[in-house]
Amino acid sequence: MALGYEKLIELADLDTDVLTMERSRGALPARVALDALREEFAGLERARQLLEPERAPLSEALSALEQEVAQLSERKSHIEARLSSATGGGKELEAMHTEARHLSERMSALEEQELELMEQLEPLEERLAALRAEGAPMVHRRDELLTQLAQEEAALDVALSERRAQREQLVGEIDPSLLARYEKIAQREGTGAARLEHGTCAGCHLSLPAAELDRLRHLDIAELSTCEQCERLLFRPDQLAS
Fold first, then answer.
1. What are phi and psi for residue 230, nearest 5 degrees?
2. What does the pLDDT look like over 3-37, one tens digit per residue?
3. Full-model pTM
4. Residues 101 and 217 placed together within one structural domain of the fold
């Protein structure tokens, strides 16, 4: 006697495939690799941020010194140009010579401070450069993984479309009242039917009590039963082999 329950189990298998595929979207190889890469890049960024509180004040102080030296140098050049075109002597020329000397001394002192700051900055800048160099290949790798992820998602979408097309065709071959019962359960559980395999519901993977198994053995072959745990339609081996 053909009961037609195989179609319902086939539908459950298709729905299981769809659920598994949908859940796999977050665990596609390229997505997993991207997540790991982002975490690695975040580690580099954290290392960079730890350097900034030490580097930034030194860099700002160096910039300020360089600006001051540039201003002094411009003033000194202006005075030296006036001196080179001046004739005679006098207090004004003496004052310009004195200012030029003071400017040179001030510039020399500032340049020494610049050297000290540069020495302090050098290992920090080297570390930053190393972090940038370490991060550069990650950008290229990220682009590769994004392309790979797009391909994996496209392949997954094709497979899902195929399963859904098979499902659409299959539901038209199932008794409407049985299908309605299946779909109501599937809304809650993801699938609405499962096989009874070695005393276990293949839907929720829980073993049935011995008393329940004994009850099922005495049911008419055409009589439907449900899992006590998940309430899926539970099909016994003899119902699917008929």
1. -110, -10
2. 678 999 999 999 999 999 999 999 999 999 999 99
3. 0.70
4. no
Domain of residue 231, residue span: 176-241
Q: What is the mean pLDDT of residues 59-65?
A: 95
Cα-trace Rg, the chain: 40
What is the domain-level CATH number for residue 125? 1.10.287
> Residue 83, SS3?
helix
Residues ≥6 apart with Cβ < 8 Å to 21: 156, 159, 160, 163
Residue 153 and residue 50 share a domain: yes
Give the other-Cβ count within 10 Å of 124's Cβ. 16
The confidence score (pLDDT) of residue 43 equals 96
| Same domain for 202 and 134 | no
> Quick one: 197 exposed, middle or buried, by C-beta within 10 A (0-12, 13-18, 19+)?
exposed
